[in-house]
Amino acid sequence: MAKTVELRRGSAADLPLLEPLWVSVHHRHLESMPELAPYVDDRETWGARSALYAELLAKPDTILILAVEEDHAIGYGLAHVMAATDTWIADTWRTAGRIGEIESLAVLPSHRGQGIGSRLLDALERELSSIGIRDLILGVLAGNEDAIRLYRRRGYRPTWVYLSQFEGR
Questions:
Q1: How many CA atoms lie within 13 A of 165 on its CB side?
Q2: The domain spanning residue 82 has which CATH number?
Q3: Which parts of the chain fold into alpha helices (H)?
Q4: What are phi and psi of 74, to 5 degrees?
Q5: Which of 112, 129, 147, 149 lies in the 20 to 30 Å Cα band around 136?
Q6: pTM of the full predicted structure?
């Protein structure tokens, strides 16, 4: 019998649940683009990411959706809203005054390929739309082909590409 995956709204109190999920994304980054090594370790990545999430979750119009199976978080999506003038968008594209950013979308490796990421993205887009946000941006590591495929199927298109040169030692 298939287990039921439920989506529910999260809050800052759920931040500890996100650690293994974010770390799985970090590992996906390492797998996707090993040529960018060295990467920070799991403790460092979660330290930086959790600080960002705590800051975002303290602001209005930040949305956290958890995918839960048998009381265990197996995925999440986090989005927030910002002024278009605070982004790299306003000098090139005509948009509404506020932009939604899909900050993170994560699904544990054991649950990928089951449509959970699509459900999380649906929920984030629906929540953002309900507060009048229709212009959206998101970032994805260039080597993460599975994520890029998901986002392209959903109508997202490349708008800005960062190139990096890291000494990293």
A1: 0
A2: 3.40.630.30
A3: 19-32, 42-57, 116-130, 145-153
A4: -115, -5
A5: 112
A6: 0.94
| Structural domain contains residue 87 | yes
Range of the domain at 131: 5-153
Strands lying side by side in the sheet with 98-107: 5-9, 63-69, 72-83, 98-107, 136-138
> Is the backbone peptide bond immediately before 38 cis, with ω within 30 degrees of 0?
yes
Is residue 161 assigned to a domain? no
Number of Cβ atoms within 10 Å of the Cβ of 134:
12
Question: Which tokens belong to 69?
Answer: 């199976």
Q: Are the C-beta atoms of 26 and 42 separated by less than 8 Å?
A: yes
Count of structural domains within the chain: 1
For the CA atoms of 32, 49, 43, 11, the dihedral, rounded to the nearest 10 degrees, stands at -120
Which residue type is seen at 43?
Answer: R
pLDDT reading at 47 higher than 80: yes
Is 66 domain-assigned? yes
Task: Please compute the mean of the pLDDT values over residues 66-78 and round it to a whole number.
Answer: 97
**Burial (CB count within 10 angstroms: exposed 0-12, middle 13-18, buried 19+), residue 56:** buried
